């Protein structure tokens, strides 16, 4: 791994984790499908950059450059931006316009670039929510957590489609693959992971991980990068 990585949990209902990286060389990271919205702030030698990514269904190559510092927000299940239909952002990353090094444009408004300051990142998320640019669908998160949802399956599917652009089945497949990688990286045996997570067999696990993360179970065990 050619970058230093750390992450922290967030108390915000809109955020899963906030992560920081410092790129120590040039390279490309293969980001696994995550079915989440993501935002990345980069401080580079040639200026600042802000990226907004919609929910992803496939592995995505992410280039990195020595010396860059990045802060990323992985939004929570059910969190979504309201200024654009999710279908337009599924498997798509948009570089946001910056009228100055300290401002970026999103949803028709200018927002302060937070740099690597966690407090400013948290405040920015709350400002998005306060202005109605960021919303959270409790049905999506409850359904993924296995909590009772007093809605028909069709209604639940509409909630998922609106927030993620995917069906509940697609989102659960991605979540299961990411959990499988986390278990493999923690040292759990491939056969045990396949059994515990309900894959038909090791071949099924291999196909799913290759499709959704870009790596086989064996490669995932030795992968030092975050999922």
From TrEMBL:
Pfam families reported in the protein's UniProt record: HTH_18
Superkingdom field: Bacteria
HTH araC/xylS-type domain mapped to chain residues: 118-223
Keywords linked to the UniProt accession: DNA-binding, Transcription, Transcription regulation
TM helices/strands, residue ranges: none
InterPro entries: AraC_XylS_family_regulators (IPR050204), Homeodomain-like_sf (IPR009057), HTH_AraC (IPR018060)
Alphabetized Gene3D superfamilies for the sequence: Homeodomain-like (1.10.10.60)
This protein's name: AraC-like DNA-binding protein
Organism of this sequence: Cellulomonas humilata
